[in-house]
Amino acid sequence: MPVNIPDKLPAVEQLKHENIFVMDASRALTQDIRPLKIVILNLMPIKITTETDLIRLLSNTPLQVEIDFLKMKSHISKNTPMEHMTMFYKTFNSIRNGKYDGMIITGAPVEMLDFEEVNYWSELTEIFSWARTHVTSTFYICWAAQAGLHYFYDIPKYILSEKMFGVFEHSLNEPLNPIFRGFDETFYVPHSRHTEIKRDDIISKPELTILSESDEAGVYMVMARNGREFFITGHAEYAPDTLDQEYQRDVAKGLSIELPRHYYRDDNPENPPLVRWRGHANLLFTNWLNYFVYQMTPFNREDIQ
């Protein structure tokens, strides 16, 4: 089944070019199917790119998925046209009385700030609390994972001596967890961050379970509340060229930046990247939608609590 997204969203044409079946809202209204409703709180600066990356993965299941995009009322995006934000994004006040089968909260370029210094922190934490009673399962990515762990479980973040930047090998701590159905024993994930959470802080909280780690990149996936919350420190959703774009951007700015590790063929930025995380990424989002959203959410969405 396709993913149902707003009419005229820019991602549509790109995904159709990739032979991904997407359906706009007008056509979806003609189908008598109870779709999964997913809300994406997009905190990334280049929002159209993030929309496309996430929709690409959410569309790869037999389930029909209906997506709403959420923005922060207390923060104005500087990198996405206002017309796009007005047309495709909702504010929290417009959805706070509704319920969703699933939610994704993206990373944000604010990791060097203390959480409470982020100008939309108050609004964000209100959304975090709301999600616990209005969403069946919430997927926190990168900075959002650190923010959620800090807010709910008092887990600190730590500034790294150098950026965690590249594609790293990960292992499974609980291979029988349904989120890993179909995974190999090791798999790869892109990371791009200046801060980290530490294993010892996580294991001190009995409510938290570390599902996956990397010898180089550290804690990758943490689960809470029997899968109603997942905290993911990497970027499985990244397109093949995302790390390259980040690297070339920083080089052009004259910033001190190391090559993304284990990314370019022969570690040569003149060569294309070795893409080896897409299979894992598709399985990750498919398993989340199937086992922790579709199979856990009540048929009557209003019964979520």
Automatic annotation (TrEMBL):
Spans traversing the lipid bilayer: none
Compartments it resides in: Cytoplasm
NCBIfam families in the cross-refs: metA
Gene: metAA
GO CC list: cytoplasm
Keywords: Acyltransferase, Amino-acid biosynthesis, Cytoplasm, Methionine biosynthesis, Transferase
UniProt enzyme class: transferase
EC number, UniProt record: 2.3.1.31
Pathway annotation from the record: Amino-acid biosynthesis; L-methionine biosynthesis via de novo pathway; O-acetyl-L-homoserine from L-homoserine: step 1/1
Official protein name in the record: Homoserine O-acetyltransferase
UniProt record similarity statement: Belongs to the MetA family.
Function: Transfers an acetyl group from acetyl-CoA to L-homoserine, forming acetyl-L-homoserine.
Positions of the record's site feature: Important for acyl-CoA specificity: 111
SUPFAM superfamilies for the chain: Class I glutamine amidotransferase-like
Marked site (Important for substrate specificity) residue numbers: 192
Cross-referenced InterPro entries: Class_I_gatase-like, HST_MetA, MetA_family
Residue sites binding substrate per the record: 163, 192, 249
Residues at the active site: 142 (acyl-thioester intermediate), 235 (proton acceptor), 237
Chief localization: cytoplasm
Gene Ontology BP annotations: L-methionine biosynthetic process from homoserine via O-succinyl-L-homoserine and cystathionine
